Automatic annotation (TrEMBL):
Coiled coil: none
Protein name: MFS transporter
Keyword presence, Glycosyltransferase: no
Keywords: Membrane, Transmembrane, Transmembrane helix, Transport
Record PANTHER family: CARBOXYLIC ACID TRANSPORTER PROTEIN HOMOLOG
Location(s), subcellular: Cell membrane
Amino acid sequence: MKNSVEQANLNVESVKVKKGLLPRVPTLSWTALLFLWLIFAMNATSREIMNRVMPAIIDEYHLSADVVGVIVSVIMVATGALSIWGAAWSDKRGQGWARKYSGVWMALGYTVFSILTGVPALTSFVAGFVIFQIIKNAFGGIGESIEVTTVSEWWPKERRGFALGAHHSAYPWGTLLSGLLISVILVSTHGNWRMPFLIVPLLIIPIYIGYWMFSNPRNFKKYEREAKNMNLTPSLDSGEVHGHKKGAILESLKNPNVLVGTICVLLAEAAFTGLNFWLAPYLAFVGNFDYAAAAGWSVIFTITGGIGQIFWGSISDVIGRKRTMMIAFAWLTIALVLFQFSANSILVLIAVQLFAGCCTNAIFPVIFSLVTDSAKEGYTGTAMGIAETGMYIGGASPVVLGIFINAGGGWNAQGGYITGLYFLSSCMIVAFILTILCTRETVGKKRGKDWALVSKKSCGIE
């Protein structure tokens, strides 16, 4: 075991000396990343449609801020409700190229229930809308853990941070494109919020067909062979794609990097979901933007969001996951407070979103890299499922924001919105402290040499 770790460290050092804008990895790693980026973009879009058309939904169902907060929170928490068990099932069903056998059912689920949400007869009452969104998000949460884990298995360990950062740029770059498409659909249909649910999800059909044909044992063995020829370390041996071990969930929860990483990603999601819930209504009801404009302008932060994920994911391969997490949480602490000025003018709105976007999305792939770095062999999908479950529990933050907005005077009063921002910012401070005290570095020069209250052995670092 010690020799294998030393060899992996030597491989990392050999990669460092090779300069270039993009990492040198097998071509098949890039192809897998492209397919999985597109799939995750559609998964994320299936969730984001609701946020983009929320003002119109509020109007149709005559919903108050606290009720909307509960609805959004229940729907978001549902995203992670089954992720742990779904990811463990995926580990058993097949790993590496064989994860497509579990992933396809998740993609089918979140696509079908997105489309059903757009059927007027099924969502004439708010209960129908909520039920379909809950089911859809449950499929999507398991799907995300499978998609992220698959990326890590198609890429060498030395470039995992870059790969997960690039993959997660689908949320927001994929949702940026879909947000613009949603705005066009809303304008073209005179604000009919159901039409995006009927049209946008269909884009995944040709994407998944292409991925299904690509993901096969022949290509995975070729990737593994090319990675070794480049002196890189495949994350999974092609002979172990059908391997599975019992007790993975409890064993993974004993690892502080997995457990505390899960708490940190929960807090990060609380801020991210809270901001998405907060922004469009703030622009529409406080800033007096029309609904289509509120949907369109509320996705500006996604421009730097994607860049931030790739940049910080790559940086984390060098300076470490822990240090990168600390930088991102400190950044977000400041950025979230600045959103109180976002309705002052278009210029301020753009500037604040671009600044915040550098880290709003970037924190997720870095934490996922920490978790997958720390997972025991064969437990990667399960560890990711635990993180995904924790992450979407953080999706309950709109309940708190809805209470703040109502207490501050309702949708049209600014006071409650501002209190909500300070709540989200405080979540980032807590995450920053937990990262310092309760996680250990997994890559870079500080690997296992940083200070914390937990041992490196307990975090899977030999």
